[in-house]
Structure formats: structure tokens, C-alpha cells
What we know:
This protein is an alpha/beta fold. About 20% of the residues lie in helices and about 25% in strands.
Amino acid sequence: MSTTLGDIVDALGGTLVGPGDAEILRLAPVGSASAGDLTFVSHARYASQLATTGAVAVIVPPALQAQAAARGPCVVTDDPYLYFARLTQWWRRAHEQRPAAQLDPLASVHPSATIGDDVDVGPFAVIGAGAHVGRGARVGPHTVVGAGARVGEATWLHPRVVVGERCVVGARCVIHSGAVIGADGFGFAPHQGAWVKIEQLGSVRIGDDVEIGANTCIDRGALDDTVIEDGVKLDNLIQIGHNVRVGAHSAMAGCVGVAGSAVIGAHCTVGGGAVVLGHLTLADGVNISAASVVTRSIGRPGHYTGMFPIDDNATWEKNAASLKQLNRLRERLKAVEQAIEKASEKNTKP
């Protein structure tokens, strides 16, 4: 399918500078773009890339309009990064046509399940008793929708996803391969040197427009539900413990772990490999750096970091040994300060 720069501006807006008949064959990063490619430069500090890129056209902010126009056609918009994100969505819709929906004969759909119009169910998928799959949803091969579970309209469950019994997934969600929604939470009571299982009787409730990465696990609640609110974005290999609540439009990068009953506010971000301990609360607008360990609740928005900087091993060991002595050094310092205060008081007496 041939696309011109003018077609893109007609669909997405922005200000076209130069001819609109430039043919666009591919979307590409600015560094590797070549003839026929469309790319973007998001900020004026990257202006030097305009001189080196081989793209036929560039999406730029107003501050770079003159430089971009000097090299060829361009699209000017206030937020090139956002424009490019919407462009990728438009490009996929225009160039990757979805085949007609069908219920594959190798799929297993329980007679009591409800399947909406235009639902695509792949081979070896299983849809359990009383489950509901909304209009326009896609259920990939080998995916399981458990008994009584609900999947919203236009949601895409990639191959090998598991949505456990009674769990709810909202509309327009994307859940990538290997994700498990509604496995048992980690609950055991110690008894005479052994562990007694606490049955996990809650479920998982996922809002609308949520995206969940490959092999991410969201455990069902013990009594109440685990809740993921609207617009949340979770990367690959994330563990969300039982009874966690994640507020609307928060995002977490790969390998984050959130322990049971933690509450993450709205519009938070958690960097890759970070850990949030159980029963803690993060206020709205909290940003946690990668690899941090959150050991206390955070009541105010802001950027928080809790990590030990990397160093060569010998230096790290010395610093770690010093850290272990901090409390002893603190007590010695307090004793010295008190001695100085007493001596000062003695010297000032008439």
C-alpha cells in the first residue's frame, strides 16, 4: 500500500511544510532512516540529526521547522514523540489488515459461554463455562479464558495467555503471550514447621485500555480482588502480588515486583527491576528509579531512588563494610558531641 506524506497529515493533522506527494515506504529511527523513510526529531537539542539522517521527511517541533524545511518536506507538530506514537497506530491499521474473525474448529468453547460479534478465537484456545468475551475481541491460540471470566470489547489476548476463573479484563486491553491473570496469590500459614495453604478466594479486576507484557503475572486476591485500574501499562516479567491495587495510568518497566496488598497511586512510574514491599502505599505521581527497593510508604509525589551505586567489586566491598559500621560511628560521634557540649558549658561558667 502506497502512502504519501500528505495522506499522513490528512489522517493525523500537523502542519505540512513542503510537497505532500513524497512517498513514505517505512517508519524508521532517525539514525538509520534512508530514502523513502519517515522519522522524527523530538527536541531542539537533537537538531544535529537533521543534517545526518537519510529520511525523505521528518516530523519536528516548531523550533526546528526552518532547519527541517531546508533539507526537505517535514511535518511540524507541538509533540513529535506523541505524533509518532499515533502514527505507528495509524500505520498498523493501514498496512496490517486483520483477517476476518472466526471461531477456529480446534478451539473449545463451553456451551454456556457468551461470545460477542466479530470475535476471533484461535486454535486450541479454551473458553470456560459462563465466560463472556466481548465484541471484537481476539483470543489467541492456546489461550485460556477461565470459567466465569469476562473479557471486554476489542481486547486482544495473545497466544498462551491465561485469564483465570472469575477474573475481569476491560475493553481495548492488550495482554501479551505468556501472561497469567489470576493465579493464586502467595498465601500460607505456618504450622508445626510446615505451611498450610490459604485459599485465594478473590479475583483480578483489570480496567480499560490496559497493556500487560509477556510473562507478567497478576495474582488473584486472597479475599478482596487485585485491581489494575484504567490505562495502566505493565512491561514484561512483572509480578503483581495478591490484593495489590495499581492506580490509573501508572506504568512499570520490566522485572518489577510488587508484593501483596501494596497500593500504587495513579500516574506513578516504577523503573525496571524495582521492588515495592507489601502493605505499602505510594501516593499519586510517585516515580521510582530502576532497581530501587521501596521499604516505606511514600505520601508525596516526586522522584525517589533507593539503590547502592555500582562500583568495582573491591571498592564496593569496602563501602559495604563501612556502611555496616555506620551505627557504631554514629554513636561515637554523638558521644564526642556531648563531651564537647559539656566542656563548652564548663568553660562558659563564671
